[in-house]
Structure formats: structure tokens, C-alpha cells
Specification:
Split_barrel_FMN-bd, 10-stranded mixed beta sheet, 26% helix, globular, alpha+beta, Pyridoxamine 5'-phosphate oxidase family protein
Length: 171
């Protein structure tokens, strides 16, 4: 892989926001001490100024029960449009706040919350990142795959992909 560039504070939040927005959907993983891991796709609704990652969730969901029992979560993002990846380990909490419901609402949530922000099932999950790592390549996926294929066929080491990777440290 290319250069290692660790990001701190505002720059880290912006990188997390960019990669999470590009990917939109993450695998939201709970119950980290149990195998197999419990993961499900979740859409990110917001990343606030402090770097907290927000999701809309049903109050009665298994994921809410799991977050309440063990606040440790892992989020895995992979961008559909580019070769960018993000892993976020964090602490989650279920938030019940009508004003925040209105602030974080997205129309797609209507599929689960029929009554919108007044739905009694509505809750938010706030994930506060503790540790994050990103991979952001400069070449598109096709070029990276071509380089890997060439290395396999010729039996040589794959060329550097000029990508950047590193920790995204918020605080």
C-alpha cells in the first residue's frame, strides 16, 4: 500500500465523513465478544461536528438491545464508487429525543417509521468513534485489480497503488 497518513481532529472527522458518505451503508456490528459476530447493513444518517456517527433504529430492535447490553460496536464501510474503506470501532448509545429525531430524519426512514418522527418505535443510535482506520486509493478499483492480476501472472510483487491509509484520530 502507498503512504501512511494519520489524521487528527477536524481533518480526521472530515475524512470519516467523506468516506462514510461515499459508502452510505456500513456493516453495523454488535456483540463484539460473541462469535460469530452480529452484523447488519445500516445507512448513516449524519456525522456531526464532533465526529459522532448517527443511525435511525427501531426501539424494539435486536440491535438496540445489543447496544444497551454492550456499547462496543464496529462499523465497516466500503465505497461502491471507489476503492475506499473505513473501519470505525466505537461506543454506541440509544438516544430517545424528539428534537433530534426531527434533526436527523431522512425520508428513507419512512419504510420503518410509518408515523415519521412521531413513531413510537423511533430511536437513534449515536456511535462515538474510539479508533478508526481508513484506506483511500488514488487509482480506481480496475487499475488496482489489474496490478494484482499482473503480479499473480508474472510471479512478481504487486506495484504500489499510490494509495493512502492511516488512523483517523478524533481526539
Amino acid at each position: 500500500m502507498g503512504d501512511v497518513k494519520n489524521l487528527v481532529s477536524t481533518e480526521a472527522i472530515e475524512k470519516i465523513r467523506e468516506l462514510a458518505k461515499n459508502a452510505d451503508i456500513c456493516m453495523f456490528t454488535t456483540s463484539l465478544s460473541q462469535l460469530p459476530l452480529t452484523a447488519r447493513p445500516m445507512s448513516t444518517v449524519d456525522i456531526d461536528a464532533e465526529g459522532n456517527i448517527w443511525f435511525i433504529s427501531m426501539r424494539s430492535s435486536a440491535k438496540n438491545r445489543e447496544v444497551t447490553a454492550d456499547k462496543r460496536v464496529q462499523l465497516f464501510y466500503a465505497s461502491r464508487n471507489s476503492n475506499e474503506y473505513l473501519s470505525v470501532y466505537g461506543e454506541a448509545e440509544v438516544v430517545i429525543d424528539k428534537e433530534l429525531f426531527k434533526e436527523k430524519w431522512v425520508p428513507e426512514a419512512k419504510a420503518w417509521m410509518e408515523k415519521g418522527t412521531d413513531d413510537p418505535e423511533m430511536s437513534l443510535i449515536k456511535v462515538t468513534p474510539v479508533d478508526s482506520y481508513y484506506w483511500d486509493t488514488k487509482h480506481n478499483k480496475l487499475v488496482a485489480l489489474a496490478k494484482m492480476a499482473t503480479a499473480i501472472i508474472t510471479g512478481t510483487k504487486a506495484e504500489d497503488d499510490d494509495g493512502v491509509q492511516g488512523k483517523a484520530i478524533i481526539s
